[in-house]
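>> Question from a student workshop board

For tomorrow's exercise we were told to take the sequence and the ligand below, predict the bound structure, and bring the output to class. My setup keeps failing. Could a helper post the expected result so I can at least see what it should look like? The ligand is nicotinamide-adenine-dinucleotide.
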Amino acid sequence: MIMKSVESIAVIGAGSWGTALAMVLADNGHDVRLWGHKPEQIDEINTHHTNQKYLPDITLPKNIIGHVSLGEAIEDAEVLVLAVPTKAIREVVNKIAVIRKDPMTIVHVSKGIEPNSLMRISEMIEEETPSHLLKSVVVLSGPSHAEEVSLRQPTTVTVSSKELEEAERIQDLFINQHFRVYTNPDIIGVEIGGALKNIIALAAGITDGLGYGDNAKAALITRGLAEIARLGVKMGASPLTFSGLTGIGDLIVTCTSVHSRNWRAGNLLGKGQNLQEVLDNMGMVVEGVRTTKAAHQLAEKYQVTMPITDVLYSVLFENVSAKDAVELLMARGKTHEMEDLTNLLGGQ
Ligand SMILES: NC(=O)c1ccc[n+]([C@@H]2O[C@H](COP(=O)([O-])OP(=O)(O)OC[C@H]3O[C@@H](n4cnc5c(N)ncnc54)[C@H](O)[C@@H]3O)[C@@H](O)[C@H]2O)c1
Ligand SMILES: O=P(O)(O)OC[C@H](O)CO
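>> Workshop helper replied:
Here is what the output should look like for this input. Compare the format with yours to find the bug.
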């Protein structure tokens, strides 16, 4: 057993991922305050040590204390783990910045890009937090379904920050025998991989919903990785990151699992439901929808070819049918598989 110093940590967002990560931190002996904005849910956490809507039949460790008061939750907590959907990041960080008096480290665990501003989450946090309050921003990402983490099944993730020591400190807070944490200095690659895999997972759900098989799934994962890496590298990421946990790792786990909300939403779209029906029925965040909009804009901005993102955009926002979208992808002009290799061969 690794001996750790005990810290007070506030987890902001009591949905699936915030609750599962609170469990990891509580298992490591930390004093965990779990903040949520729904009083009945916080009452359930404190009274029954459960969070049935998000993690059915899981008993939470007793050292997780639920809070509805944000002030109480973050008081004395030097590390804040932000676990709300990308859409809520600015609102929540703003509320924290108003209350907070002392510098803090913010660990974000969300996977998205903001449409229009085209900002990564760490950039949004930096923009919304006065610099005297922000010690550093760390991202925790990788192939990790809350459902499996809450069952203490083996899971690996990566933490990244502009300050390596801060990433290592957060690695120490989370790591245990079920939850292995690596570091990677490439924060752009880690955030881009985590956000854009949701687009490919929606597409993988669609092909499954249409009744296509493993060949289509493998094609989406590998060609999806190619377009994510193509954009990421243009944005300043290391190409190596995309062959790691937050690249191919997260693509595999999200495109092949019924736990994935993005895959499940895509599956329903492939079976013929419309987007609004699907989102109304999910009851949890499906990040890939907004991220498709953002990635479509990023592809335009960086002049990068992203065919899967483009056809998914047309399905989600331009009423193109899922079946037609697959046909459009398959009928594209012929091309080389490896762009770098093509350059090496003198552009043949
Ligand atoms: N669930 C997973 O397995 C998992 C794993 C890795 C990363 N993530 C990422 O974590 C982030 C959160 O996902 P989740 O699975 O916990 O989502 P979720 O839908 O299960 O829970 C989201 C929580 O945020 C709360 N919330 C929403 N808007 C809010 C607001 N304006 N103010 C305060 N609280 C608000 C909701 O009430 C809910 O408690 C997403 O970006 C997701 O991609 C999820
Ligand atoms: O349920 P999803 O589709 O939001 O995916 C959950 C995690 O991001 C998988 O790593």
